[in-house]
Amino acid sequence: AFPAHKPHTMAFRRLATHITQRRDAITYARCITSSTLASSSSRDGDDERSLAERLSRVPLERTRNFSIIAHVDHGKSTLADRLLELTGAIKKGGAHQILDTLPVERARGITVKAQAVSVLWRSDAAGGEAREYLLNLIDTPGHADFSFEVSRSLSACDGALLLVDATQGVQAQTIATFYLALEGGLVIVPVANKVDMLAADVDRVAQQMISVFGVEREEVLEVSGKTGLNVTSVLDAVVSRVPPPKGDLNAPTRILLLDCHYDDYRGAVNVVQVVDGEVRKGDKVTSYVTGQHFEVLELGMSTPTPCEVHSLKAGNVGYMITNVRDVRSSKIGDTLHAFKETVEPLKGFRQAKPMVFQGLFPVNTDDFEKLRAAVDRLTLNDASVTVQGENSTALGAGFRCGFLGLLHADVFHQRLQEEFGTDIIATAPTVPYRIAQRDGTFVECTSPLSIPSGGFPQEVSIEEPLVEATIICQPQVVGKIVELCMDRRGEQLEQTFLDDSRVIMRYRLPLGEVAADFADELKSRTSGYATFDYDDAGMQKGDIVRMDVLVNGTAVDALATLVHRSKAQRHGKDIVARLKEALPRQMFEIAIQAALGGKIIARETISAFRKQVTAKCYGGDISRKKKLLEKQKEGKKRMRRIGNVDIPNETFGALLSNRKT
């Protein structure tokens, strides 16, 4: 305390009083803020508990599991957004394509991973008074390379919204997904989307759906996913047309494992469908495939934010977290059942069959362990990718990975880079060939190095995979497509008119001709209007040979490919011409050759750097200049014999990323 008679005492007292008042005001504000936050948090907690109770109260007969299937870019994710807004799951005018969560999905504008969400919808469409229904919606990819995701989603559904763009009509992947749904016994709800567009021709598209899918005209719903026009009728149609799940609440518990992903804090998060019985938090479950036991730590549904519930009953689709953090213990398609109970395994779904194989190598060989960890984590989230180790003389240690198609492989590469920061070199894509041995057995071949450079004896043959391709195009480009398919060794099976503006063509093609750039070439020749889909069509004998690329007389294993003999020379000329442009010049001449066994089929030469050794000769006898040139020539020959060409990894990356067949 300061004496009262001193002049500065009052100033200090006023300052102290001001500081005290300021501190009290801040304390009061903090109390009000924390009280408000606590109240808000309490309300949010109450809302979440209320939603969890409402989700759990819906009985099995008022549960609907359905999916949205369509060709790529026909508006599946946009329609899903409108359905979520209409049911109150998300706010209107918020983020677009809420179910596309991966960065690669938002960057490319396509759906890569199937996403499930549970919503509540009050409706009287099934007759009687309005009641609350639990709708489990699954948004699926539309590209042919992700058909495994589609088949996996459909295995958990009882109905499907078959979406067709009213401006484009029925496309190739539309037909493929329709037959997948039909094979699974799903009820089809046909929907014509984008009817608000000026170019929409609803009657023509409806007629296509009637002729191709056998639906009735009055069954086709006309909606706009962009504006929300008539979207309510879609939810009511799901309630009235799609049957409830066929599970039994009183039967022994059986759970189908649909998907699994890794969470840094909670470990393995399993996406499951409870087919029979009920599973509760704290229960012990057993894997039918591995026999491993788990304790259930958390159960919930995606709304689309996670909503924790106490139990999942028959017909519910949700997530389950157990005490096992390792995702390898989760086998996609596995049947989980109650501890110490014997049950019949569920049918599951059709397993993925790799159609394209590539070698993946780190740009820097020291980053192999980083690549291994990234591939392990990513393949746990994508069960359709197969992985095995591979070693290359030129690129070092890496992996041989199998994908469902080139887009699938490209997305996998992009996710490795974006999600894990891993730079890779991908070798040229190959397809799985089959070698018929003398004793009648078969050996699968996924790498060019599995076949001898000189080929097999005559009694050993090679079989190549075939696909049955469906192409839908306009009539005026049929000639260009026939020319393309004939160039790719195709055999025409069928050609019919869908209507006056659409033609369906079916071809049997070698997978090796399709896997590389067939889709790009098809789009180029038809100005982007043709659509393409394919399915497995068995194997046939083919004249397949291994083509090696030699640099300075040494074979480079990373550039070896398997090609049909009739196209080997064309392919060889292309690869040596591009390698000539990619390789840096040396002090000696470099020969780049493409070879089939011991036969050279294409060659390019990179000229050497040359010093002007006669520059010091301003005159005199010509023999002096010839002597200097001969001496230089001998030196170049000696250098070429002992010199090695070091191909940098950046050159491999630039060459292989733009490779053509």
Offer a few descriptive terms.
661 residues; alpha+beta; six-stranded antiparallel β-barrel; elongated; disordered N terminus
How far is the first residue's CA from the last residue's CA?
A: 92 Å
Strand order of the largest sheet: 2-3-1-4-5-6
What is the global morphology? elongated
The mean pLDDT is 79
Radius of gyration of CA atoms, rounded to a whole number: 32 Å
- What portion of the residues fall into strands of 2 or more residues? 25-35%
How many helices in DSSP terms?
15
Count the beta strands: 30
**Which ranges are low-confidence, i.e. pLDDT below 50, for 5 or more consecutive residues?**
1-12, 24-45
The description of the largest β-sheet is: 6 strands, mixed
Q: Output the structural class.
A: alpha+beta
Helix content estimate = 25-40%
Summarize the structure.
With 661 residues, the chain is an alpha+beta fold. It is built from 15 helices and 30 strands. Helix 2 crosses helix 7 and helix 8 crosses helix 9.
Walk me through the structure:
It is elongated, with a radius of gyration of 32 Å. The longest helix has 51 residues. It is 31% helix and 30% strand. The N terminus is likely disordered. The protein is built from 15 helices and 30 strands. By secondary structure, the protein is α+β, with helices and mostly antiparallel strands. Strand 2 and strand 3 form a beta hairpin. The strands form 6 sheets. A 6-stranded mixed β-sheet has the order 2-3-1-4-5-6, sandwiched between helices. A 6-stranded antiparallel β-barrel has the order 7-8-14-11-10-15. Helix 2 packs across helix 7 and helix 8 crosses helix 9. The relative contact order is 0.08.
